[in-house]
């Protein structure tokens, strides 16, 4: 029996590698299926005066051209709050905004039709930078401040002061499978949608809203995504709504699969950030007071920027403590695509603040940044163990992950070795950098911290598992199945893992915030536990023993107290339950207990617990070209008592490399008119297999199970290790001898820094 804690492979691992795993676009098309393509604006800001669709309509294969006037319900795809139009009407707010949809008998015909639509747009002045939007005071999330003590006074009273500004870029999700949805009309206005989505319930709501119907007429399913990374939390909804609109109009199934270019232009990315801060500190590098502004580029609409700003603010001090602090966060409104969830959801951007503070102050004090960071750790001497918003953090685990990463990486010896290398090599520079993280787990939006499951045991003893979580490659389905195995004491091969469906589990949260296994694991546990209780009663009667004495293990049900080895096969008992007319089906529900947040005071305990981790990375930089390689990374990551160490290891490696991409090679570039010009892999460089550190030691922290009541004492893992990639950026600073770098630290930026465009670290 391999339940919780077993290092099992991903349930679809073989199918992924052989190509047998079916993604939305692999499903056999129903007879009469039509294909849709979007007409996108190439103007960043303006008023749409006319849409000339005549040429498109006359093209072979084109069946319909649909715009805002064709929407039977609301032209509104917003996840929360203000209306966000599916099709611009008449205000155009970014280059790439959908204007209309062309439906045709083939995908090529639809794409050609879309290219033939002419939009008449009167241009308006676009706002394309965070600075300009700040000047104009235009926000999608108004500035909000988390404060404790008196930062201004503490800074004024400190022995030393510093002011700085820096920036971090956004990031394209670059999921392997792009956005796709297939909508099929049924009887009585029903619609069935297959979508690549992290949030089937929101797809359901948005489709119902756009079609002007009720949720019970819309069924959304998703077996798996070829990656989501946050990019399919809200953006999947409007793609599905467009397909559903076309299905409603034509009465035929419609597939909308975005081409990579359209996907990159029209869907949101990680928020770019601008940072401005002032700190007061002492000669030992202790930060005594800190005031900071974190300004995210929200893009043209709200989307989930409120949650991203919340997470950036609450993670701005990361694993450190500053007694007197004031952190203001906002998301400005610009004429760019609406930025959205991306692995870490503002947490990585928040953590960059304290790393910048630590590294600049360390340079000023002529101290190693690791020393300065450790002196400011939550729980360090003279420091508190509570975040500024009032939540307790486990300082002992912060100190422990750092001590272990330092030891694993052989830090002291390699420092010496690197110094010797750098002293002699004419052009190459090596550098060592580190990162320590404390990442809060739970959705910042409190009501999303809930999950449901539906478990059936059939009379042959086989089990069918459904829950509200979605599979995007992260291994959620196998982990939740392992939980159910554990409850019933059966092997994994008894459990059928099924597609997520709004018809089976309603009103779900997105699979996001790394909470998938925490929430759905408990919900499935609770469903299985209910059935197990009923089965135990039947077994107890049969054995003539107390219910408490019945034990489920090794695919059997045992009469533990009876002595000997009396048992029923699990399947036998299932059959018995059926004959005795006992229900073998149950829903299960879970809500995260004890979390709360007061928006007015910006205080509370919004996270069920924290995840901790530390990393050390070494880079080598070519000072002639600015290029670098990461040579080695050592990671210690806290996963509590891991539900599946094999899957968790994969998550840590993947998150780290994805974070490395964000910070070193992935650069989004918009031209002067606000048009994104990095629209494919030739101009947008994601990390490749050769960028994975050749020495990559990933270890799960041992013997530190979650202290909160998490499912089998496990901890979330999906997002926190993204922050560990900051160790690579820190190693680059070390190699080239600068305290700060704007990110991503592309070869160009590194070269500029080497040529002395920035401050240098004084070396004694
Ligand atoms: N891993 C893979 N392979 N593909 C993904 O799309 N998304 C990440 C992370 N790991 C992702 C991934 C993000 S953004 C989140 S929030 C979590 O997985 C969501 O899943 P979980 O809550 O089950 O960890
Ligand atoms: N993470 C991801 N998605 C979310 C969150 C979060 O914290 N809150 C609301 N949606
Ligand atoms: Mo992950 S950014 O919370 O989908």
UniProtKB/TrEMBL annotation:
**What is the species of this protein?**
Falsiroseomonas frigidaquae
Keywords, ordered alphabetically: Molybdenum, Oxidoreductase
InterPro entries reported for this sequence: Ald_Oxase/Xan_DH_a/b, Ald_Oxase/Xan_DH_a/b_sf, Ald_Oxase/xanthine_DH-like, AldOxase/xan_DH_MoCoBD1, AldOxase/xan_DH_MoCoBD2, AldOxase/xan_DH_Mopterin-bd_sf, Xanthine_DH_Mopterin-bd_su
According to UniProt, the name of this protein is: Xanthine dehydrogenase molybdopterin binding subunit
What the entry lists under SMART domains is as follows: Ald_Xan_dh_C
Q: Drop me one GO molecular function for this one.
A: xanthine dehydrogenase activity
This protein's source sits in the domain of life called: Bacteria
Q: What class of enzyme is it?
A: oxidoreductase
């Amino acid at each position: 029996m391999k339940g919780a804690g077993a290092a099992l492979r991903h349930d679809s691992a073989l199918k992924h590698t052989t190509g047998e795993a079916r993604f939305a676009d692999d499903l056999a098309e129903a007879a009469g299926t039509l294909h849709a393509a979007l007409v996108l604006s190439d103007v960043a800001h303006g008023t749409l005066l006319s849409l000339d669709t005549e040429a498109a309509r006359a093209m072979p294969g084109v069946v319909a051209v649909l715009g805002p006037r064709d929407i039977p319900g609301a032209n509104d795809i917003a996840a929360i709050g203000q209306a966000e139009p599916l099709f611009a009407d008449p205000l155009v707010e970014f280059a790439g905004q959908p204007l209309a949809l062309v439906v045709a008998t083939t995908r090529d015909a639809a794409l050609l039709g879309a290219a033939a639509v002419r939009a008449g747009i009167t241009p308006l002045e676009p706002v394309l930078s965070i600075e300009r939007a700040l000047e104009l005071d235009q926000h999608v999330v108004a500035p909000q401040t988390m404060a404790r003590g008196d930062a201004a006074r503490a800074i004024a009273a400190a022995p030393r002061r510093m002011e700085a500004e820096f920036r971090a870029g956004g990031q394209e999700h670059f999921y392997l499978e792009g956005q796709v949805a297939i909508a099929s009309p049924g009887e009585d206005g029903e619609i069935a949608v297959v979508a690549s989505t992290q949030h089937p319930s929101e797809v359901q709501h948005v489709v119902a809203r756009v079609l002007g119907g009720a949720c019970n007429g819309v069924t959304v399913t998703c077996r798996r995504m070829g990656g989501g990374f946050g990019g399919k939390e809200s953006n999947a909804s409007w793609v599905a709504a467009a397909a559903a609109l076309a299905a409603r109009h034509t009465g035929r199934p419609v597939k909308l699969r975005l081409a990579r270019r359209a996907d990159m232009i029209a869907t949101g990315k990680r928020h770019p950030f601008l940072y401005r801060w002032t700190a007061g500190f002492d000669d030992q590098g202790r930060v005594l007071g800190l005031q900071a502004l974190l300004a995210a580029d929200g893009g043209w609409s709200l989307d989930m920027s409120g949650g991203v700003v919340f997470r950036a603010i609450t993670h701005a001090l990361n694993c450190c403590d500053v007694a007197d602090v004031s952190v203001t966060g906002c998301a400005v409104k610009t004429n760019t695509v609406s930025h959205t969830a991306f692995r870490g959801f503002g947490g990585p951007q928040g953590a960059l603040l304290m790393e910048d503070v630590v590294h600049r102050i360390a340079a000023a004090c002529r101290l190693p940044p690791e020393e300065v960071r450790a002196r400011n750790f939550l729980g360090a001497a003279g420091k508190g163990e509570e975040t500024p918003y009032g939540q307790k953090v486990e300082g002992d685990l912060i100190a422990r992950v750092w001590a272990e990463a330092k030891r694993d990486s052989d830090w002291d010896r390699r420092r010496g070795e690197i110094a010797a290398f750098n002293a002699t090599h004419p052009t190459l520079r090596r550098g060592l950098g580190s990162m320590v993280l404390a990442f809060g787990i739970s959705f910042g939006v409190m009501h999303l911290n809930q999950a449901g499951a539906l478990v059936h045991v059939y009379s042959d003893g086989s089990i069918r598992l459904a829950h509200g979580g979605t599979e995007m490659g992260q291994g959620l389905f196998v982990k939740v199945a392992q939980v159910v195995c554990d409850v019933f004491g059966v092997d994994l091969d008894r459990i059928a893992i099924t597609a997520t469906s709004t018809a089976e589990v309603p009103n779900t949260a997105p699979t996001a915030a790394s909470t998938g296994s925490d929430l759905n694991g408990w919900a499935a546990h609770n469903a299985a536990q209910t059935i197990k209780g009923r089965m135990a009663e039947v077994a107890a009667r049969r054995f003539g023993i107390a219910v408490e004495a019945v034990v489920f293990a090794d695919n059997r049900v045992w009469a533990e107290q009876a002595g000997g080895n009396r048992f029923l096969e699990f399947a036998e008992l299932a059959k018995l339950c059926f004959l005795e007319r006992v229900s073998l089906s149950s829903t299960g529900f879970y809500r995260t207990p004890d979390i709360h947040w007061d928006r007015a005071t910006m205080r509370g305990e919004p996270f069920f617990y924290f995840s901790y981790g530390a990393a050390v990375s070494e880079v080598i930089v070519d000072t002639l070209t600015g290029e670098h390689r990461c040579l080695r990374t050592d990671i210690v990551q806290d996963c509590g008592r891991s539900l599946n160490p094999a899957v968790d290891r994969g998550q840590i490696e993947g998150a780290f490399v994805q974070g490395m991409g964000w910070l070193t090679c992935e650069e989004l570039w918009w031209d002067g008119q606000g048009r994104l010009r990095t629209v494919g892999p030739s101009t947008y460089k994601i990390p490749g297999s050769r960028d994975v550190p050749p020495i990559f030691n990933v270890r799960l922290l041992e013997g530190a199970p979650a202290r909160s009541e998490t499912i089998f004492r496990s901890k979330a893992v999906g997002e926190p290790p993204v922050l560990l990639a900051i160790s690579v950026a820190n190693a680059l600073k070390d190699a080239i001898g600068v305290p700060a770098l704007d990110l991503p630290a592309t070869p160009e930026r590194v070269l500029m820094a080497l040529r002395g465009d920035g401050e240098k670290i004084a070396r004694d």
